[in-house]
Amino acid sequence: MDKIPLKNWVLVGGALNLIALIFALISQNRLPPQVPLFYGVPAGENQLVKPLFLTVPALLSCFLILVNLFLARLTHNDFLKKALVVAGLAGAIFAGITTFKIIFLVW
Prior knowledge:
Elements: H1 7-26, E1 35-36, E2 48-49, H2 56-74, H3 78-106
Antiparallel strand pairs: 1-2
Helix pairs in contact: 1-2, 1-3, 2-3
């Protein structure tokens, strides 16, 4: 982690993912049997998933952060390193917003 700039932003992104993941798991009992997740799909049954799938955005965002950290370690360009860290944080923010909005929409 010594070669990664903006380490605190990486930690914030990881914390946001962890909070969204825990909140999605805790709210499983209060959610209906199916919740909308895939808004890009035409309206209907294809948008609905089981509540456990609300963990997918946070898990994908964690994967994005890990891939970006790996790529940042490979490059020597400081600007690119910072851009990768910021992209991971943005992914975490958007994943958190998506998860929380869906949960509060159907709650």
